[in-house]
Design brief:
This protein is 16% helix and 26% strand. It is an alpha+beta fold. Strands 1, 2, 3, 4, 5 and 6 form a 6-stranded antiparallel beta sheet that branches. The chain starts with a helix and ends in an 18-residue tail after the last helix.
Length: 158
């Protein structure tokens, strides 16, 4: 399994375990606001953020920010309107600041309409990827984990 995909599988597992998302799709094509959110979690022992957004048609955009340090995020604890909202696939801060507070960002789509799986295979279907210098070795060392109730790869929909 692709190293970045391992992070997405772990992120979806965390959301399912906490009952923040469901693999069930009721057929309603509306974008329910309760199907968007974020959670601070530990993935492979590292502080992380997983956020998700209902994009319709039974799909959720899942994003994982691995090795996330809120205290170093320029917009992490702001008392202004510039504070991080955890709604986008990558942090709001300019990417030049990412090395200070996040190790890896990766996003993908979780299909739930016909069956449950992360869309694409290997690197295909992954987007908004950021990898801090030196993190590739750490990613490669991550173990492959089981996906809980969904497939880690599947058909990619355009």
């Amino acid at each position: 399994m692709n190293d970045l995909r391992k992070l997405l599988v772990a992120g979806v597992n965390e959301l399912l375990e906490r009952k923040l998302i469901s693999l069930d799709f009721d057929g309603d094509d509306g974008r329910n606001p309760e199907e968007s959110g974020h959670a601070f979690v530990r993935i492979f022992g590292e502080p992380s953020v997983v956020n998700w957004h209902n994009i319709g048609f039974g799909e959720l955009r899942i994003s994982v920010w691995w090795r996330y340090d809120l205290s170093e995020h320029p917009r992490g604890n702001s008392s202004t309107n510039n504070e991080e909202q955890y709604k986008a696939s990558r942090p709001l801060s300019k990417s030049k600041h990412y090395p200070k507070f996040v190790g890896v960002c990766v996003s993908g789509w979780l299909e739930r309409k016909k069956s449950a799986y992360l869309q694409g295979q290997d690197k295909k279907g992954l987007h908004d990827v950021y990898i801090r210098k030196g993190e590739r070795v750490e990613l490669a060392a991550l173990p492959t984990i089981e996906a809980n109730g969904f497939q880690p790869e599947g058909k990619f929909h355009l």
